[in-house]
Amino acid sequence: MFGKAGDSLRTFSLLKGMPVYDTNGDLLGEVCDIVIQDNGKVSDLLLQCKGLLSKKQKIPIENISSFGEDGILLENKDILTKYIGMPSEYTMNHDKPLIKKNALSQNGVHLGLLDDVYFMEEMGTIVGYELTDGFFSDITQGKRVIRTPHPPKIGKDAIIVSVTKLRGGKSHDEVSELPK
């Protein structure tokens, strides 16, 4: 798919709601968002912690022991810190949200609205974007995924992405492999 052999890919939509445990098997909470730096890397996962206050905690991606199919493991729960949005950080849904933001090519062509991101688990590098043109278009034509070697330029109103490969437009494309 994307990346090199051995690299594991995730999408935000697959991580959302995934439980996070410490190595003692204690549930710490669920993933509610990802933090994306302005250089286009996923730096942290946001965790909705259990309890009365339901506060959001930040987990640096490099401190995650393992990403499993059914949960995420942390070696040490002491690495959790309270989430406070920084000016150079974006999220998919919460502080400075990117979801449904216009995506444009470097030539100014409207590609669609950002719906999801593909990133390598170990490094947090975003390697692709899933775009939508709306519900009815997704049903009739499918979502598009663009593969990109360069970080995006994130502006107030749009994301500028370097387009190398584009696929989509057919319903059977949604899980298919991108061209190399």
UniProtKB/TrEMBL annotation:
<dbReference type="Pfam" id="PF05239">
    <property type="entry name" value="PRC"/>
</dbReference>
<dbReference type="InterPro" id="IPR027275">
    <property type="entry name" value="PRC-brl_dom"/>
</dbReference>
<feature type="domain" description="PRC-barrel">
    <location>
        <begin position="97"/>
        <end position="165"/>
    </location>
</feature>
<dbReference type="InterPro" id="IPR011033">
    <property type="entry name" value="PRC_barrel-like_sf"/>
</dbReference>
<feature type="domain" description="PRC-barrel">
    <location>
        <begin position="13"/>
        <end position="76"/>
    </location>
</feature>
<protein>
    <submittedName>
        <fullName>Uncharacterized protein YrrD</fullName>
    </submittedName>
</protein>
